[in-house]
Write a structure and sequence with these properties.
There is one protein chain. 31% of the residues lie in helices and 23% in strands. It has 391 residues and is α/β, with parallel strands linked by helices. It folds into 3 domains: 262 residues, Metallo-dependent phosphatases (Purple Acid Phosphatase, chain A, domain 2); 71 residues; 46 residues. Strands 6-5-4-1-15-16 form a 6-stranded mixed beta sheet. The protein has a 6-stranded mixed beta sheet with strand order 7-8-9-12-14-13, covered by helices on one side. A 3-stranded parallel beta sheet has the order 17-18-19. Strand 15 and strand 16 form a beta hairpin. The longest helix has 24 residues. This is Nuclease SbcCD subunit D. It comes from Streptomyces yaizuensis. One of its GO terms (molecular function) is exonuclease activity.
């Protein structure tokens, strides 16, 4: 059976306030064309369909059109909710949509109930593990602790228990939205760490023929059977070097995997350029970036006059301007934003405590209080998003 694995559409998202809905629409056109061109038997969408729990109407309409086109193509689609989605909203009407071959899996309780697909060699059980917020699903799944590894382990125990009661020829696919150890993050994924830990080991998915992952925006192979498709578009300049693709996966009759990448359309490339303002304006080697979305980092010792206006004369699509003046010794003077880049909420809070105490950071008890506070805020946000449907 041939699967087209994609994820992290983030419908409704913008890039530095530039709307991307037209580019997202072009990607969905490409998705439908790729299904037909490569004769895919099913589509796997591993979460973060929307960029936020209450998406704009235009994003909902785009999603609705995509579902109709997938149904018209007659290709089964299995889709889970991610940490950016409201699982309850995305799952509305799932029972009816299921009849059209669009299988939405947003309820954690259904982790062990697969969508059954079949080919000439038998059944393929597709299990959907939506994003599992540990504090909210721990009791429902019977997990030992409220952290990611425990709840995903509990969900996978249900998957393996269901598989054990099926014929030995049944092949298996799991869709999951998680941060798996070994994956390379970017700046555009929302932090999902609980208690300071956000990742889970790849071995947690043992016993499954293929794991279609979502959450990280770069296309990655964790193991032969565990892969991220990545997002179809770049959603931050940290993704400027990404090759945006989907996985085309052939699942053999013996459970073997053959996978190749299908490139996604690039509406406008991203470029990161660095130097003094005069260098950026005069360097002929930078001509290739005239039509790119540009992030410019200025290294001038003093801030030049009207840098954005002058840059946009040469690079009309400059979206981000960063100042990193270089010291006399050649080292950069990092801005506050630069110092925080790539750091989690817990690390930032601990550094702040050390700053206001003159260098004395929090002790273990205080770290635990901070972890509990951050975990509680995230759970409260998730609960409010779910409750909002009653408003």
């Amino acid at each position: 059976m041939r699967f087209l694995h994609t994820s992290d559409w983030h419908l409704g998202r913008s890039l530095h306030r530039v709307p991307l809905l037209a580019a997202q629409s072009a990607f969905l056109d490409h998705l439908i064309a790729a299904v037909r061109e490569h004769e895919a038997d099913a589509v796997l969408v591993a979460g973060d369909v929307y960029d936020r729990a209450v998406p704009p109407l235009a994003a909902v309409e785009l999603f609705d059109r995509a579902l109709h086109r997938l149904a018209e193509a007659g290709v089964p689609t299995v889709m889970i909710s991610g940490n950016h989605d409201s699982a309850r909203r995305l799952g509305v009407g799932a029972g009816l949509i299921d009849r059209a071959g669009i299988h939405l899996r947003t309820d954690p309780a259904g982790c062990g109930t697969p969508v059954l697909l079949s080919d000439a060699h038998g059944d393929i059980a597709c299990y959907g593990l939506p994003y599992l917020e540990p504090a909210l699903v721990k009791d429902e799944l019977g997990a030992a602790k409220a952290h990611h590894e425990a709840v995903i382990t509990a969900a996978m125990d249900r998957v393996r228990a269901d598989l054990a009661n099926r014929p030995g020829t049944t092949r298996s696919v799991v869709l999951a939205h998680a941060f798996v150890t070994g994956g390379e993050p970017s700046d555009s994924e929302r932090d999902i760490s609980v208690g300071g830990v956000g990742s889970v080991p790849a071995g947690i998915f043992h016993g499954v023929d293929y794991v279609a992952l979502g959450h990280l925006h770069g296309c990655q192979t964790i193991t032969e059977r565990v892969r991220y498709s990545g997002s179809p578009l770049a959603y931050s300049f940290s993704e400027a070097g990404h090759r945006k693709t989907m996985w085309l996966v052939d699942l053999g009759p013996d459970g073997s995997i053959t996978a190749g990448r299908v490139d996604c359309p690039v509406p406008r490339p991203l470029a990161r350029i660095r130097g003094t303002l005069r260098e950026l304006l005069d360097d002929p080697a930078l001509d290739r970036h005239r039509d790119s979305f540009v992030e410019a980092t200025l290294t001038d010792a003093t801030r030049p006059a009207e840098p954005m206006a002058r840059l946009t004369e040469r690079f009309p699509h400059t979206l981000s301007l960063v100042f990193e003046p270089e010291r006399a010794d050649g080292g950069p003077v990092l801005s506050y934003a630069q110092r925080l880049r790539g750091r989690g909420d817990q690390e930032i809070a601990e550094d702040f405590v050390a700053h206001v105490r003159g260098g004395s950071g929090p002790d273990e008890r205080e770290r635990a209080v901070l972890r509990e506070a951050f975990d509680g805020v995230r759970v409260d946000e998730t609960v409010r998003e779910g409750a909002g449907r009653h408003g």
